Amino acid sequence: MAKIIVDGTELDVPPDFTLLQAAEQTGAEIPRFCFHERLSIAGNCRMCLVEVKGSPKPVASCAMAVKDLRPGPNGEPPVVITNSPYVKKAREGVMEFLLINHPLDCPICDQGGECDLQDQAMAYGSDASRFAENKRAVEDKYIGPLVKTVMTRCIQCTRCVRFSTEVAGVPDLGSIGRGEDMEITTYLEKAMTSELQGNVIDLCPVGALTSKPYAFAARPWELSKTETIDVMDALGSNIRVDARGREVLRIMPRLNEDVNEEWISDKTRFVWDGLKTQRLDRPYIREAGKLRPATWNEAFTLIAEKVKATKPKKIGAIAGDLASVEDIFALKGLMSNLGVKNLDCRQDGVALDPSFGRASYIFNPGVSGIDTADVILLVGSNPRWEAPVLNARIRKAWRLNGTKVAVIGEQADLTYAYDYLGAGVDTLNGVVDGSHSFSKTLKDAKRAIVIVGQGALIGENGAGVLSLAAKAADAIGSLTDEFSGLAVLHTAASRVGALDLGFVPGEGGLGLAGMLKPKALDVLFLLGADEVDVPAGPFVIYQGTHGDRGAHRADVILPGAAYTEKHGTWVNTEGRVQIGSRATFPPGDAREDWAILRALSDVLGVKLPYDSFAQLRATLYAAYPHMAAADQILAGDVASLKSLAGRGGAVQAGLAFRSSIENFYFSNPIARASALMAECATLAAGGKLEAAE
Amino acid sequence: MSVRRLAAVQPESFAFTPENVKWAKGIIAKYPEGRQASAVISLLWKAQEQHGGWLPEPAIRAVADMLGMAYIRVLEVATFYTMFALQPVGKHFVQVCGTTPCLLRGADKLMHVCEKVIGHQNHVTEDGQLSWLEVECLGSCSNAPMAQINYDYFEDLDPESFEKLLDDLRNDRPVKPGPQVERACSGPVGGPTTLLDQSLYDGSVVGSWKKRFDETKAAKEAATVQAATEAAKPKETSPGEKQAAKQPTDKTKGA
Questions:
Q1: Is the pLDDT of residue A250 over 80?
Q2: Per the structure, how many domains does chain B have?
Q3: Which residues form the 4Fe-4S His(Cys)3-ligated-type domain (chain A) (predicted)?
Q4: Which of A86, A584, A604, B248 has its CA 20 to 30 A from that of A2?
């Protein structure tokens, strides 16, 4: 630890702290543009100048380390002053230079109201310009359909360049030219290809990079801001939904060090236009092969007729990927009241089962466990598309900690270098018995994580592969009481919650494959389940938000609420219980899903024992106490993993693993309804879009 | 300096010649594994040489591929350094220095000559022989005003000699690089004005300063000998001691 005096307060800080970090410990606020905690230090904006006793000039505090300061003549700690008139004058000088070439277009700038430059100009700006020459003007660049550029506003902080190179790992952006002619651009103005590119909008301290879909839509102070949870992938990124009236206008990340740090993927950020299109805003009934609008009563009466005429054995229910824990709990309650045992939440047919213990289906080391891992083995997973923000975290570990990454499965561009071990089961077997050349590295590792993707667990081999993966984790010494290295990476936001609730076939009940066999069922209830192909035969009740695959097959449609339109709980892939809130109301006649199920239960004569959402939650918490512990993880039991490893199971030799995500931008009904996601998918597929401007 | 952009018309492709590939491999091998990107400037420069003095876009990609760099990283380098010409240049690429010393000595007149003979900056004459550019200080201030044409400096120019020089170049007549007036390198015009004494150069004064050392040395030796003889004499009366002690000092001075 090193001693330093900041504004008269003596501090004890680690010697590698920068002056900026040390000053923040005392609560001093230091203005900055180029400095960002999660990016490398550039030190080019000069806004963070402070006074250091004995230094002939002001010092850029973001780039000077505490250990680089000399002590006083008698060994006194170095003295830093952040609030003297000298410092203020220095910063005012910097600000004046920044403003020389910055246009005075705040009234037409989308950053207005949340602009770092605007805010800091209030503190350090002068009221008039002394600059009589021509201002610099820069041509706007096309860098993709998501990020709008107004390059004259750029102050060359290079945060975006550092983000795309360091965090995203896709070096698209760069700064060409020099001096006054320096410009930020992509190579020949091609669209950026990173799936995290939207984060440069948040990083940009001025209005140079703004959200293209949100352009000129609203001012930040007009928006109601709701903190909630993302459902686009199973990471459960913490987000803030900004809405005006009934309309979601944008989605931004929230800080959560344990989950998404401060990044979100483009799908999370830009999916909101999908919330407005293809919406189911009233009940529908299929008559003579065609859907017609109906009233709630008509729909419920029809369902009651069908359900009452059907034996429980011939009724089934499938929970979708975006459903909240409360919805699934209500559906489970309804089904068990009806005596239905044909339940499933595993739309992709993976072999995860709550009977193996909670540890068998969660990301045991935790997302933040990636930071301390020394080897990561990816089995049948492409985290770049399954959970982009998690992939950025693996990249961070690889880049900063020297974590080794190895892959069994598809060879894909993951934005970091990895050892490719093999394609599938045979290689995994090699790791288990230690015959593979990489096993030694895995065994020598102190904290090795085996990440198992859903792609490896699909189908009849799934159970065997899961057991094999547990065996591999055991063989390399990653299943101990202190550290459990088996990590299941989910792709569906609802999945862990549904497994926690045991939304799987009851005793003698049919699973997904059984339910989808022709003539297996007479009535099938889909709670937002759009990823399954229902055969002709059963009467399908679809409760969901979008006119997607499930609605096309449905005989009755009950319009539900999307994730931004209801309060709800989601459990992310590491088993973290997170609570989301309602930002807007569902459109038209659509209702919150639990309320629909509650009303339906009354019509069916099997009334659910709660009348309000609070009562529902109380019942839920009584049955599953860990759901009450928001932002907590109920840890899995290592013993259950050991017994899982011992289970074995038939695995077809030579089986090759594939990622379960076919198209990142089309993985759920909301994304499929989004025009922007379609545009991104076209670009990602190598298609060319005409530059819009 | 103005905004530098890639040329609007670009060749289809670019590939290093086999000799240049071999040369490039040698350059890359100078850097440790994982640091190949350090060779980027050398390779870009070679690409520019090979491609008639300017750097086309396919060459940027070719260099990036050779070094495992992102295209944008190489573009950053190519646009940063003004020695990489991004627009086509003439066979003789005239870079007129326009920084203060040259300008004080009439570089503006040279630029007028360029405007007259060649045209605007970055414009290549129709015969493809000439193009010109104003550049910052080329470090030949003592010979101002000057211009760099391809690899050679042409110094101490005036509008007439410069116009003739351009005409000679255009017609591929031989030209003399260096000062265009009677002067060697940055020496005085018309020949040297100091250090004219021929004896400085015939060797006659060489080593004359060493004589003083020999003299001092001989004197010292003589003094030592003198002191030794005095000491060897049988001891005399004590009153003489003072004098005897004084005498050698005097003698040394005298010698």
A1: yes
A2: 2
A3: 86-125
A4: A86
**Are B115 and B148 found together in one domain?**
yes
Does residue B132 share a domain with residue B101?
Answer: yes
Smallest Cα distance from A172 to chain B, Å: 7
Q: Closest partner residue to B73 among A174, A183, A185, by Cβ?
A: A174
Same domain (yes/no): B65, B132: no
Question: Coil, strand, or helix at residue A505?
Answer: coil
- Kind plus residue range of the DSSP H or E element containing B155: strand B152-155
- Contact between chains at A181 and B57 (C-beta distance less than 8 A): no
User: Is B75 touching A (CB cutoff 8 A)?
Assistant: yes
Nearest to A187 among B1, B4, B75 (CB): B75
CATH code, B171: 3.40.30.10
Provide the CATH number for the domain around residue B34.
Answer: 1.10.10
Q: Which residues of A touch B73 (CB under 8 A)?
A: 171, 174
Structural domain includes residue B73: yes
**Domain edge (last residue) among B28, B51, B80:** B80
Mean pLDDT of chain B: 89
ipTM score for this prediction: 0.90
Contact B57 A188 (CB under 8 A): yes
- pLDDT value of position B191: 85
**3-state SS track over A546-614:** ECCHHHHHCCEEEECCCHHHCCEEEECCCCEEEEECCCCCCCCCCCCHHHHHHHHHHHCCCCCCCCCHH
Whether B8 maps to a domain, the answer reads no
Same domain, B41 and B99: no
Question: In the numeric block, which tokens belong to residue B168?
Answer: 């000679």
Mean pLDDT calculated for residue range A125-140 = 90
Q: Which residues of A touch B80 (CB under 8 A)?
A: 176-178
In chain A, what residues touch B56 (CB-CB under 8 Å)?
none
A42-46, A89-93, A415-419, B202-206: which range is least confident on average? Answer: B202-206
| pTM as predicted | 0.89
Q: What is the mean pLDDT of chain A?
A: 93
Interface residues of A toward B, Cβ cutoff 8 Å, are 165, 171-179, 181, 183, 185-188
Q: What is the rounded CA–CA span in Å between residue A130 and residue A99?
A: 10
Could you tell me if A665 and A195 are in contact, meaning their C-beta atoms sit under 8 angstroms apart? no
End-of-domain residue from the set B179, B200, B225: B179
Q: How many CB atoms lie within 10 A of CB A482?
A: 6
Contact A175 B73 (CB under 8 A): no
Residue B87 lies in a domain: no
- B3 touching chain A per CB within 8 A: yes
Tell me if B151 is assigned to some domain. Answer: yes
Tokens standing for A620?
């839920």
Residues B109 and B173 in one domain: yes
